[in-house]
DNA sequence: CCAAAAGTGTTCTGTCTACACCCATGG
DNA sequence: CCATGGGTGTAGACAGAACACTTTTGG
């Protein structure tokens, strides 16, 4: 995939779905699906995303709940509960098989969107930027084990701006949250880089209901160059 | 009201309601109410809080939506949409009239709570701490016009720790977000303090759906010593 | 003049930034 | 031996913490 204009190596991408009914027929929109009585909200969101995009996200978090009376038709107010997901580089290798109605877009070049989905995406991105410091979050994007360069690429993709690699590396290492696995990873013909992971205590240190679901991980390594995210509505 | 143990002058308080039915009969819980078809979620939350506690909050924000299948009875999953409110010192003067089933508690000394309401409160507090920098938020607690000492008290109450007043004052003034109103406020027989307000641009600078509702304000001044917050469920 | 809160100055320390530099590797 | 990314050193700018100090007021 492409490289971003400014000195940034990686890019955030997300899948959109072309609407097949009114309103906004033919426009791009966030993937979505219905609520299921015997499932948690997270499970319903996961299913909605999976069925429309074939993604198996490793991170799923509730974003916001919308309940505008203008959307209601008669009885109860219509409520949309929006989730967002992160998909790591490893999963991505199998994904970009785009279905007929699904297409991946870089977040800095999105098409016109249906409803208020553009605003939802902007809000999700600001939340993501605020949380990128959390190991639980960044791990979903870069994988369990990673080099400092890979971690650096994810930070740049998420923040959208260039970060000095030398300073980044020092900051990360001095945080005490990373440990050297002893492994080396060679990219191309260059000097092999040390492979790190977050220490257990860093991964555990979070309190809220975020990061609750889908802790299953398939032992994958981050190798791709791009960073993927998805939003879904229930 | 009391003074906190450590050098902190003000305290965060919140209202709880004693449950009058099963489950958790007799236990303390967050105020709550039902959803209304012809109202937005915010309006419903506002109504729920108002009817149980007689509060007219000046700040209302969506916290999280719960939808555990374990809560369901048959049909659709039962969903709770939690909002939180901030109530400034001025409003407070009329409030602490506690109804039979409503009582105010300092957040560092809450009773046993029904359901998972304790966890909800903890999450709300961490969110509040993260947002206390935003003029839109702090203004709801301290009022439109305030002295630097009052602002300082709010910061201490919310963060729960002592903050050096001299440094605090410099930081605030150098931020460029405050402007001197020219007014003076005398407390007791001491030197009068300058009264400040946030500049318009600072109050406008926010993006998300938070801070959307209930912009009505009754031109009140913060004079009380305590800071109040409320959570409600819909 | 005293107490108490308002408000100012100064020093110290740690963190962020920019950028020069050295190291390891395969071709 | 050279190009490329991995990795280290260092000097200046800046922001926060600690705390001594001065000012204004009513009693």
Automatic annotation (TrEMBL), chains A, B:
InterPro entries: NUDIX_hydrolase-like_dom_sf, NUDIX_hydrolase_dom, WH-like_DNA-bd_sf, WH_DNA-bd_sf, WHD_NrtR. Residues 1-129 form the Nudix hydrolase domain. Pfam families: NUDIX (PF00293), WHD_NrtR (PF21906). It comes from the Bacteria. Transmembrane segments: none annotated. This is Nudix hydrolase domain-containing protein.
């Amino acid at each position: 995939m492409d490289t971003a204009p400014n000195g940034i190596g990686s890019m955030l991408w997300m899948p959109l779905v072309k609407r097949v009914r009114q309103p906004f027929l033919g426009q791009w929109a966030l993937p979505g699906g219905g609520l299921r009585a015997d499932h948690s909200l997270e499970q319903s969101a996961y299913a909605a995303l999976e069925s429309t995009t074939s993604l198996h996200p490793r991170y799923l978090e509730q974003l916001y709940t919308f309940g505008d009376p203008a959307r209601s038709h008669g009885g109860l107010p219509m409520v949309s509960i929006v989730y967002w997901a992160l998909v790591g580089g490893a999963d991505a290798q199998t994904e970009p098989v785009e279905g007929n109605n699904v297409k991946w877009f870089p977040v800095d070049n999105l098409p016109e969107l249906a409803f208020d989905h553009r605003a939802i995406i902007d809000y999700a991105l600001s939340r993501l930027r605020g949380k990128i410091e959390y190991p639980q979050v960044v791990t979903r994007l870069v994988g369990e084990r990673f080099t400092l360069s890979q971690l650096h690429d994810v930070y740049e993709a998420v923040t959208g701006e260039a970060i000095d690699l030398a300073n980044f590396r020092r900051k990360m290492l001095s945080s005490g949250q990373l440990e050297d696995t002893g492994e080396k990873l060679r990219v191309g013909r260059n000097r092999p880089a040390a492979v790190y992971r977050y220490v257990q205590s860093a991964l555990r240190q979070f309190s809220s209901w975020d990061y609750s679901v889908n802790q299953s991980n398939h032992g994958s390594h981050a190798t791709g160059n791009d960073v993927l995210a998805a939003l879904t509505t229930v």
